[in-house]
Amino acid sequence: MSEKSLKDTTLKHYEEILIKERDDAQRLIEQLSESYKKGSKDNSGDLSGYSYHQADQGSDTHEQEKTAYLIELEYQKIKLIKESIRRVYDKTYGICEICGCYIQEARLKIIPYARFCIECKTKEEKKKR
């Protein structure tokens, strides 16, 4: 366990936020999956299952690819949230995994599953460029 740790009441507060975020993401995945299964034709009311024009087919394919991408993003978000919940239990939540400093409260309010402080995240993103 890290020598630094947020107060138990603060950890509990963020645990509740993380659980709500996880549940919201799971609901969104369910909604997107249902939409993906139905396909855009069912959503538009066209029950034939066939597009009348190649452009329609391209639009249908694009919508399905976009939905699949959004589902994948939500799964990645859930993974990060689960890791953050584990860090709450380990009492390492809110501590940057790179420098060991506290992650700014403003950052945790916006991205409660953040693993890095703003400075370290900025450095990491610059390395990727």
What this model shows, in words?
This protein has four helices and no strands. By secondary structure, the chain is an all-alpha fold. It has a domain at 8-93. The radius of gyration is 20 Å and the shape is elongated. The mean pLDDT is 87.
Set down the secondary structure blueprint.
Layout: H1 8-44, H2 54-90, H3 105-110, H4 118-128
Helix pairs in contact: 1-2
The averaged pLDDT comes out at 87
What percentage of amino acids are in beta strands? under 5%
- In total, how many beta strands? 0
Name the assembly state.
single chain
- Structural class label: mainly alpha
pLDDT < 50 stretches:
none
Order of helices and strands: HHHH
Rg, rounded, reads: 20 Å
Largest beta sheet, briefly? none
| Alpha plus pi helix count | 4
Instruction: Kindly state the percentage of residues in helix.
Output: over 70%
Shape: elongated
The termini sit apart by 33 Å
Brief overview:
The chain has 129 residues and is mainly alpha-helical.
Descriptive keywords:
single chain; 129 residues; mainly alpha; 4 helices; 0% strand
